[in-house]
Here is the input.
Amino acid sequence: HALYTEKLLYLPHSYFVNDHRQLYPRPFVHTPKREEHGLPVDVTLFGNFGQLYKVEPQLFAAWARILARVNASSSSSSSSSSSSNSSAALWLLKFPKEAVKRLRQQARKHKVPEAQLVMTPLLPIDSHLAIKALADVALDTE
Here is the structure.
């Protein structure tokens, strides 16, 4: 598409639920940076921005396999001078707070290092929407 520099993947049988009553500024006043939100800079950042109750154990297991494969692929072909042992991280919304403990347990179960599980708080809608662009790959729950 001529309006985007990114490669778009069209999913014909999907729908983004939206609420037309929520207004947010366009264009965004401030272009966020990963550092401003405690996000790792030099990794492929996989993001999911839904509530944690939607992340079922089998789905988290699939995401853990993705991280492991990206890290294995990177380490086998790595010539970079990165000081990090991982080349990918999973970025999730830290909401609801009751689900965070369960998710961290799943991470340990699937040997996802703590540094590869990044959780950020719920932000005001304009900031929440703006920071989504910081993810390299968006993951969905269905």
